[in-house]
Amino acid sequence: MNTATSTKKHVFAFAGGDGKNKKLLGGKGANLCEMTQIGLNVPPGFVISTAACLEYLDSPSRELPAGIMEQVHTRMRQVEEQTGKDFGSADNPLLVSVRSGSALSMPGMMDTILNLGLNSTTLEGVITQTGDRRFSYDAFRRFIQLFGKVALSVPDEHFDRQFDTIKQRAGVTEDVALSADDLREVSERFLEVVAEATGRPFPTDPFEQLEIAIKAVFNSWTGKRAVDYRRQFNITPDLANGTAVNVQTMVFGNRGGDSATGVAFTRNPGTGENKLFGEYLVNAQGEDVVAGIRTPKAIDRMADEMPQMAKELAELRDKLETHYREVQDFEFTIERGRLFCLQTRNGKMNATAMVRTSVEMERAGLIDKREALLRIQPELLEQMLFPSLDPNVPSEPVAQGLPASPGAASGIAVFDADRAEEMGKEMGRKVILVREETKPEDIHGFFAAQGILTSRGGKTSHAAVVARGMGKPCVAGAEGIGVSVERREARVGESSFHEGDVVTIDGSTGKVYLGEIPTVEPDFTQELSELLGWADDVARLKVWANADLPDDARRAVKYGAMGIGLARTERMFNAVDRLPIVIDMIVAETPEQRLAALDKLLPLQRADFQDLLEVMAPNPVTIRLLDPPIHEFLPDEHQLKRDLAALRSLSETTHGLTVLSGSMGLIQVPDEHRTQIDAARRLLDPALVEEVIAKKEAMLHKVHALYETNPMLGHRGVRLGLTFPEIYEMQIRAILEAAADCAKKGIEVQPRIKVPQVCTREELVRVRTYVDTIHAEIERREGCPVAFEFGTMIEVVRACTQAGSLAEEAEFFSFGTNDLTQAVFSFSREDAENKFLPLYNQAGILQNNPFEVLDDKGVGKLMELAVTWGKEARPDMHVGICGEHGGHSTSIAFCHRIGLDYVSCSAPRVPVARLAAAHAALLADQ
Ligand code: PEP
Ligand code: MG
Questions:
Q1: What is the predicted pLDDT for the residue at 809?
Q2: Neighbours of ion ligand 2 (CB under 5 A)
Q3: Is 499 in contact with 412 (CB distance < 8 Å)?
């Protein structure tokens, strides 16, 4: 044996171990050392290091490192001195717990052994100490079973068989109904079980028990449970290597009316209220609380019941918070009037409590603003902005889709937009619009619905994008649901739901439930405003919003947006009163017809833009000229064909009625029938039917004419604007006239015109000519200067590589990372997310979903180049991002690093982005 190792210090008293060295002492051990050293009354004990564990596991015949048991003996003597008890004595026995604990918490890696040190001699001492035979035998039989199972590998079934026999004989079904004598017999039988299974008597020498237990804990590191756990959670040796063993004095909360046990938070973890929160049980063991055998009391009651202890508990709370400077979740036991703190850790809290406690701790001088900001994960704030499902209500989802727009909602299922409007708006019911997928003509259904559920489509499907923009929950692509509009029902596996049945969707998780699950309302608190104010002070990146309608913009302002980075004008085209005009514009066969439709759209768009500019004044509003392929505004081909077939048969019917009414003279018909037939004929105007048929035929014709093999790479964006200049000219005019109107009213505004899908400078040059001509005309006519900026989306690969040349025309760049990601990966998002991305992520081929977390190595690399080249050509170039990544914290950190000026995201993500921008700035300094 190596003598160097034999002198190594492996065993550390809680009072002496380094509380920061989790690698050596394990998380639990280090924590117990720290707690002891800051003066908390921790039951005395010691830690055996992870280094000892590794040495043990490395030794060929699994021998404990030399000298370790001597060190254990020394430490145990100290514990005996501290407690006044004796390990192995019959009068005043010291019992200990033995627990594993590695650098990272691995719940369930090994069971805890309690009451080690018990044997038939020390048991007598416990009976004397506690005066409770039943408790003592119960503790003994539990110890034998746990030790037998954990340390000696005796299967539980052997014990259970004996236990059941005695229960049967005693005629009881519950363990608690067994008497002290029954439990004595149980422990005797358990001792036999161990002897039979191991071929050796149950060890009675406490130090022998301890040595076996230490080895068992060390062995558990290589046990299947632990190995699987480490594999599952990717715990590599540099994160945690070996387990420590914690040996700690047992304290009993069940030693009479002056004893108790409890758990508490230093502040309320649900509300953040600065008040001790928890429960306790007098004369009870921790297990009783967990087992729910007795109902614990609220901690407030302790002031009456045990005033001195309540005072000490309040002191303990102050000590914990002053030292850890975070809300603590701690366990305590009172043994005969002495308060012990058994464990403490940072309390898990909901977002509201996290924000409130952080702000209040800053005000109290416990932490500074930087710490307050950094301790809250930006994404957590989402909880405070959307309704969520009540976590206290048990619920089982029936289907899983994509979490396409956060928030939760319940309502009756309706299967088309008209019904949604009828039931929702007119009858005041809460509705969930359930569709296979949605189209622009469903927009009125969105307005009327609480939430949207689709069985097809991804996170950028129409349903997802529109719902996000409106801040309504949406679950998209729930493929397990079969939607039948005709039958007004949806099938989910074996069950189904029909129109009028209540369903609940959770757009934050993608889960769908049958029936109503109560939701908890969001809470944008005063503390959150204050915290986000601090965030803005330290952030370099500004946070803007993607907002298309004035209401979205107002919400964005409420959440602290400092500008609009993207207004998708197509959203304005989708409004119920606009769509027919937009369709006229699309089906127009001549420029004159198109201009007539555009003339009708102009005042509507101007009013939209004016509203947006005014809501955001004096901050910038970036309006993107029309982007999507125009066929998206038309109904789908199959629907049109079905409609036409129905209309043609209606036309036949009206013709038939006319023939019938004209043929009355041929036969004998009573007068009243004649009147009815005439009335029916007058009810249906054949000319009206023909007019609708003509319109739908024109639409169908256009649908065919506009057909593209790959529309997303086809006739859209600036390509559309250059082939139908009237459309962009109308929009440019609407923007500049709106700005002129604001200027005349004395409202300072900053309109920005943005061109989508640009791949070459020449495209910008041409659109700029439209802008300059219209701008000059408006300034001349209005007699006032109209300021604006002109810039481009950077969302195709060529735009990145040509950034230098685009910057000669563009005053700003706005990265459209949704399209850019598709282009760089050559993945279509919808197909990727529905088909292969989950597997790619699971198998580790890709670490993240690149449509959610910006791919800094590929997409990001191109962005970095574009920023560099763009700023070389135009040093004061203003650069931002408006793809969905603009609202995700890790992507925001990347945007900070490459020198963007702002991120733009949907209104409800604005608070998340503000905090993430602050994190990016604070962490970049490190
Ligand atoms: C983008 O491509 O990132 C973008 C913002 O545009 P859209 O999502 O409207 O295509
Ligand atoms: Mg785009």
A1: 98
A2: 795, 816, 819
A3: yes
